[in-house]
Amino acid sequence: MSTQADHGHELVPRPQHTPDALRAALAAVDPARLEEMQATKDDAFAKAVEWQSLSPVQSWVLSWARDIEIARRPDLSIRYARAKGNLEHEDPAIAQEALRELSAVLGEAMNAVRE
Q: Per its UniProt entry, which superkingdom is the organism in (predicted)?
C-alpha cells in the first residue's frame, strides 16, 4: 500500500497498482463489484493480447484504482452517490450541477491515484 495525503477517514489504505492489490482493496470496500472487476480484467487482458499493447491493461488498472479511491474515501463516496443520484433530476440546473460534481469527483480520484 502506498502513502497518500490525509483526506480524513479512509476505509483502507490506497492500494498499489497491481491486480492483486486492487482486488484486495475492492473486496474490502465494495465486494459486490468483484465479479465486474474480474470480467473487465479478462476483457482488458484479451484486448492487450489482440492489440499487442499494454494500454488496455493500463486503462483497467487506472479505472479500478479510481473507483477504489472513491469507495475507500467516504468524503468522495458521498459526493459521488449524491451527484449520481441527481443526474436525471427534473430540474435541469440540478442535473447540470450533478454532472459537474460527478466530473469533479472522478477527476479528484484520478489525480489522487496518479500521485
A: Bacteria
Residues 65 and 29 sit within 8 Å (Cβ to Cβ): no
**Angstrom distances, CA of residue 91 to CA of 32, 56, 96:** 32, 38, 9
More confident residue, 52 or 115: 52
DSSP state letter for 61: H
Phi, psi angles (nearest 5°) of residue 28? -80, -35
Phi, psi of 98, rounded to the nearest 5 degrees: -65, -40
pTM of this prediction? 0.88
Q: What CA–CA distance (Å, rounded) separates 21 from 41? A: 13
pLDDT digits (tens, 9 = 90+) for 77-99: 999 999 999 999 999 999 999 99
